[in-house]
Amino acid sequence: MTTELRVPTPHGEARLVTSRSRHPVATLLLSHGAGAGIDTADLEALAGNLPRHGITVVRLEQPWKVAGKRVATRPSSLDDALVAAANRLRTRTPLVVGGRSAGARSAARCARQLGAAGCLALSFPLHPVGHPEKSRLEELRAARVPTLVVQGENDVMGRPEEFPSDVDLAVVPNADHGLKVPVRGEVTQHEALGIVVEATLEWLVREVVGEGPAGGAAGAVRG
């Protein structure tokens, strides 16, 4: 079941789209990136598949996007909206915060403050394009909770080999920053999204909820 809710924040209304599990054991709150909304393929794949494994998925549409703006507002405003959304949820299950790109950065910055049980970073922008010396690794480490990074093999904002070995990392072969793969690549786009879902579910079971209703392999991604 999917529901929608408008949530007031210090920077305008945000929108929460919730895909509920019938028997939730955890709640995953996801925010989108700076250039797209909550309808990116990876966020939709997680929302479409995780609920049947006991994970309720809540996608946060930031106020700037709700207002129809094309450019994201400053990072602190993204954090404010994420905190407002998390406080509105008042979930009884463990809360995991996450997102893609800018949303992943925001989740890492806010995870500890929100008492999150984990942080999911999809396409974490480890550095600006072409500037590996401007590392955001400390921002990722600031989460101080179990964290999974799902990264494309060819992400120009941080290839998997640029992350330290102690970072929990799931790699999508040949994928770019948008987790898109070449038409004739090693895996199809459908398979790439399957990797995102399966890696996330395995990590949630291992690090957040333990063996239980969420256990087992992820189902096939909806085509």
3D structure, described in words:
- This is KANL3/Tex30 alpha/beta hydrolase-like domain-containing protein.
- InterPro entries: AB_hydrolase_fold, KANL3/Tex30_Abhydrolase, NSL3/Tex30.
- With 223 residues, this protein is an alpha/beta fold.
- The chain has a single domain, classed as Alpha/Beta hydrolase fold, catalytic domain (Rossmann fold).
- The chain is 28% helix and 23% strand.
- The chain contains 6 helices and 8 strands; from the N terminus they run E-E-E-H-E-H-H-E-H-E-H-E-E-H.
- An 8-stranded mixed beta sheet has the order 1-2-4-3-5-6-7-8, with helices on both faces.
- Helix 1 packs across helix 6.
- The chain is globular.
- The two termini are 19 Å apart.
- The C terminus is likely disordered.
Largest sheet: 8 strands, mixed
User: Strand tally, please?
Assistant: 8
Q: Are there runs of 5+ residues with pLDDT below 50, and where?
A: 216-223
- CATH top level is Alpha Beta
Radius of gyration: 16 Å
Return the average pLDDT rounded to an integer. 94
Number of individual domains: 1
Morphology call: globular
Head-to-tail CA distance between termini: 19 Å
What percent of residues are in strands?
15-25%
Write the CATH homologous superfamily.
Alpha/Beta hydrolase fold, catalytic domain
Largest sheet, order of strands side by side?
1-2-4-3-5-6-7-8
Class by SSE composition: alpha/beta
Assigned CATH architecture: 3-Layer(aba) Sandwich
What letter string, H or E per element, gives the SSE order?
EEEHEHHEHEHEEH
